[in-house]
Design brief:
CATH topology of the domain at 3-184: Rossmann fold
CATH superfamily of the domain at 3-184: P-loop containing nucleotide triphosphate hydrolases
Distance between the termini: 75 Å
Radius of gyration: 35 Å
Helix content: 55-70%
Strand order of the largest sheet: 2-3-4-1-5
Shape: elongated
Strand content: under 5%
Low-confidence stretches: 1-5, 283-290, 435-440, 851-857, 918-926
Oligomer: single chain
């Protein structure tokens, strides 16, 4: 087959499949996978030609090893030719591309957001003419670009876009896990090998022909390149080739190219080296602007030697094969490479990240100017989701620092990023390399080491002492310059995080005193850190104006680092305003867990999950929680693994999945309590409270709840105290502790919880309604709860308040008055998937006589718990068995039954089944 004047020998089946790929009516993706020189590039060229002839627009790109850590460097090649179409997108998607093209703009998008925007752009660009995206050397593409290509490639069906990717089989590739269809490209058959060799090298000496066929073993590149090498070097070439037997074929081909490169003039080799180090590619990169490649001009000599050729798209010189480019770099001396990198740094004067790549390689001796530029590139990469690149540049900047203090600071910064990226081994190595003999750990090293201790081991005790000592040393020694101010800020924020996990008043008291001694809000401690202090420690006592402060800080979102976005999200959680900031977290989380600050990504997943729980998206919350748990386990992140388990346990308790809830609760508690991690043990107690309430075990719920805070008080620095307000009150009411319940509701009112957040307002008014001394007050408080702005955004709490009020109405005013509240409560619980709560609400509805069944007035006198105990007793269970199932003592079960009998008009246990059947018109409650 000879398509359009080009011949591909021995590739009939591949050509047929690629022809079907191009002519398919719908978009799709395909990966060509094969060894070096096997013919992937030729097949890509063939497909591009075929597509162009069939009316497609073709855009080419190539992965470059030197750019594999530059965020979105590969994607830029595909997108740059599509720039004219960006103006046709909606504003949100136009905004996303600002990051890819280095124009600043908003907070860097998540991989998900960018992928969706790319799909939108491709749809617009292909609306009038189908589009083929052809990527060669995909194994060198940066992580962010691969993620976007994989996401888009899996979703091209139905459109007019094709994606074709070539990757080397002998190198691990990020496309290995992209889940795209693959077409393996294998060696040529013996017949095809002979035909290819004879067509391109007719009349070859039979002996040389046999050697080439044996050595090439069906590799097309070897069949094309070995004959000229052998002919030009006669017997010496044969000896060299046969002397390298056992060496992989790509290495032997490098030797072949090396002989041609060695024959070039020094000027020609230097020009090739500059092109090779800058990743000169064929028909992909723009000639100017960000992402532009070096343009080789003095390359006629190399073209004559068969090393470069003219690109049909741009007319520029490009390397004939990627192996030529790698051979040029391999053969250059260190001084030659440094000189080439220095020249390329000047070429990329306006591209901070690309310039940094070349400066880092060009500089040998300490140079503070270069170190500063590398630091700027690291900051740019961090904001674009490139933590790995940032870490590398900071480490190199440290090596080039002229002052020991600057070296330590930059290594500390690199370790800081490594810790947030969950790269604990690298972080520990950086911390160790930063230590200065005889001087102890620097403050920057303390930051990194304490993060590792906290994240990996949950060590809140020793890490807190270490960080507090470092802060005190800086305070007494004085702050000298912006660098120390930044280190101090990191120390303060870390101390606040440790204190939050410790979760006890004494720890927070010491932390507040230490931070307060550092200065007023306008002093060394930034206002943002003071916001963290006030919201993370005790939002009831210190969160009065925090919502306004939070809004002000989030207004600076485009300039925030990912860890600042996460910390502000934690503040939003404590203020119950996560919902309005969840889109910011979503835009960041996918990018960070893949290529950036992975630990921060895990925090954001926790926050997203909490908001999903709050608004009733419980299925989505479970998926988010499982994703966070998987990430934490994969990165050996013990603290966040148990943090994820705690939230999954809470969700299971809400849904009535009590065995799962208690299993997870036990795992969290047994790990966190010995370590003194009060934040998690409080959540474990909240899980116990919620699980007990779900099954109607109010005594157990009360005991768990008072483990968080005493009735009538809101324990200082206990973040679950205001959140479990309704739990403690309801448990107290149902266990005959009316005075304690009322005191707790009044304590919430007096602490002005309604002024802290809408959710706490809802809980406070609900608690006051439950404990109201008369029906008029109960109705007023219930109405206030219903009227809280945003109350519908917390459907579970609102449904509980309606259920409690409906029960009160049924007893006070009769069944008719109660039905509306009970119906709305039951519907909410069913919609949420809160099975046991829905069952309870439906039982109350039946008791209200909604269906008009005989005897409903008798059932109306039973509480939900009495109904359940009566049903279990009617089914034949003993008091002990009922107690085991409901976590009650046999004596408590007996007391309940003693009260049930007269309400149902019976005198013995034997009459229960008939009584319940008459009352409900159904069998006994299981």
């Amino acid at each position: 087959m000879e398509p359009y004047g080009k011949t591909l020998i021995g590739r009939a089946s591949e050509q047929e499949e690629l022809g079907s790929f191009v002519s398919a009516p719908s978009g799709q993706a395909l990966v060509l996978r094969g060894d070096t020189g096997i013919g992937k590039s030729a097949l890509l060229d063939h497909t591009a030609d075929l597509a162009a002839r069939e009316g497609h627009r073709v855009i080419r790109a190539i992965g470059v090893e030197a750019e594999s850590d530059l965020p979105f460097a590969g994607l830029h090649q595909f997108l740059h030719p599509l720039l004219p179409h960006i103006d046709r997108l909606d504003p949100a998607h136009r905004e996303v591309f600002e990051v890819v093209f280095g124009r600043g703009g908003p907070t860097p998008p998540s991989v998900m957001a960018l992928s969706i925007a790319v799909l939108d752009l491709l749809a617009v660009a292909s609306s009038q003419k189908p589009l083929l995206l052809a990527l060669d050397d995909g194994q060198w593409l940066d992580t962010g670009s691969v993620e976007v290509c994989g996401f888009a490639g899996r979703r091209l069906a139905g459109g007019a876009v094709k994606l074709l990717v070539g990757v080397r089989a002998d190198i691990a590739s990020r496309f290995d896990t992209a889940a795209l269809p693959e077409l393996p490209v294998t060696t040529l058959s013996s017949a095809a090998s002979e035909e290819l060799l004879d067509r391109h090298h007719p009349g070859l000496d039979p002996r040389l022909r046999g050697i080439v066929l044996d050595e090439a073993r069906g590799n097309p590149l070897a069949l094309l390149e070995l004959p000229p090498f052998l002919v030009s070097r006669a017997e010496r070439g044969i000896e060299e080739l046969l002397g390298h037997q056992g060496v992989p074929l790509p290495r032997r081909l490098q030797h072949v190219y090396g002989t041609r490169i060695s024959a070039l003039s020094q000027e020609a080799r230097a020009e090739l080296l500059r092109g090779a180090l800058d990743g000169v590619v064929s028909g992909a990169a723009p000639a100017r602007g960000r992402g532009a490649r070096y343009r080789m001009t003095d390359a006629d000599e190399a073209a004559h030697a068969g090393l470069v050729e003219s690109d049909p798209v741009s007319g520029d010189f490009v390397f004939r094969h990627p192996l030529v480019r790698s051979t040029v770099v391999h053969m250059a001396t260190p001084n030659e490479r440094r000189s080439a990198h220095a020249a390329l740094a000047r070429v990329h004067q306006d591209d901070v990240e690309r310039r940094a790549t070349h400066l880092a390689a060009a500089t040998v001796d300490p140079d503070e100017r270069v170190a500063t530029e590398l630091e700027a590139a690291a900051e740019s990469a961090t904001r674009r989701g490139g933590a790995l690149a940032a870490m590398g540049w900071l480490t190199r900047a440290a090596e080039l620092s002229e002052e020991r203090e600057e070296r330590a600071r930059r290594l500390g910064d690199a370790a800081f990023i490594a810790g947030h990226a969950a790269l604990f081994d690298q972080a520990q190595q950086l911390v160790r390399s930063e230590a200065v003999p005889g001087r102890g750990d620097s403050p920057a090293a303390v930051v990194a080491a304490a993060y590792l201790a906290l994240y990996q081991d949950g060590d809140v005790r020793s890490s807190r002492r270490q960080v507090a000592a470092a802060i005190d040393a800086l305070r007494t020694g004085g702050i000298h310059g912006p660098a120390e101010e930044e280190v101090l800020e990191r120390l303060v924020n870390l101390l606040l995080a440790i204190s939050q996990y410790a979760g006890d008043a004494a720890s927070w008291e010491h932390t507040r005193a230490l931070v307060g001694a550092l200065g007023a809000p306008a002093g060394p401690v930034p206002a943002r850190s003071l916001l963290y202090r006030d919201t993370w420690s005790d939002v009831v006592r210190h969160g009065g104006d925090a919502r306004e402060r939070l809004e002000k800080e989030f207004a600076g979102l485009p300039h925030l680092e990912p860890w600042d976005v996460a910390r502000l999200g934690v503040s939003a959680y404590h203020l119950d305003t996560l919902g309005q900031y969840r889109p910011h977290l979503r835009r960041t989380v996918d990018r960070e867990v893949e290529t950036g600050a992975t630990a921060i990504g895990m925090t954001m997943l926790h926050l997203i999950m909490l908001d999903q729980i709050a608004v009733g998206e419980w299925d989505e919350a479970e998926r988010t929680g499982e994703r966070g748990l998987g990430l934490a386990l994969a990165h050996d992140h013990a603290l966040f693994a148990h943090h994820s388990r705690a939230y999954l346990a809470l969700l299971a308790a809400l849904r009535g999945q009590l065995d799962r809830a208690r299993e997870l609760q036990s795992a969290v508690e047994s790990w966190a309590r010995p370590r003194g991690i009060g934040f998690l043990t409080q959540i474990a107690d909240a899980v116990g409270t919620t699980a007990a309430l779900s099954e109607g075990d109010y005594e157990a719920a009360y005991l768990y709840a008072i483990g968080i805070t005493s009735p009538g008080t809101l324990e200082a620095c206990a973040h679950q105290a205001p959140r479990t307000l309704l739990d403690l009150v309801e448990a107290a009411v149902h266990t005959g502790r009316g005075a304690e319940a009322r005191a707790h509701a009044l304590a919430a009112r007096d602490a002005d919880l309604p002024g802290v957040s809408p959710r706490l307002a809802l809980l406070t008014y609900g608690a006051l309604a439950m404990t109201a001394e008369d029906d008029e007050e109960a109705a007023a408080m219930c109405a206030r709860a219903e009227g809280v702005p945003g109350a519908a955004g917390f459907p579970f709490e609102l449904a509980r308040i309606r259920l409690a009020h409906g029960i009160r109405l049924r007893h006070a005013q009769g069944p008719t008055a109660a039905r509306a509240a009970l119906t709305r409560a039951a519907e909410s619980f069913e919609r949420l998937g809160a099975a046991s709560w829905a069952h309870r609400a439906r039982a109350e509805l039946r008791a209200s006589g909604r269906a008009g069944r005989p005897g409903s007035a008798h059932l109306a006198q039973l509480t939900w718990q009495e109904q359940r105990i009566a049903g279990l007793a009617a089914s034949g269970l003993t008091n002990k068995e009922i107690g085991e199932r409901m976590h009650l003592s046999p004596r408590t079960v007996s007391s309940h039954l003693y009260r049930v009998f007269p309400k149902l008009g019976i005198t013995s246990r034997a009459a229960l089944r008939d009584a319940l059947g008459t009352v409900t018109g159904e069998g006994p409650t299981p």
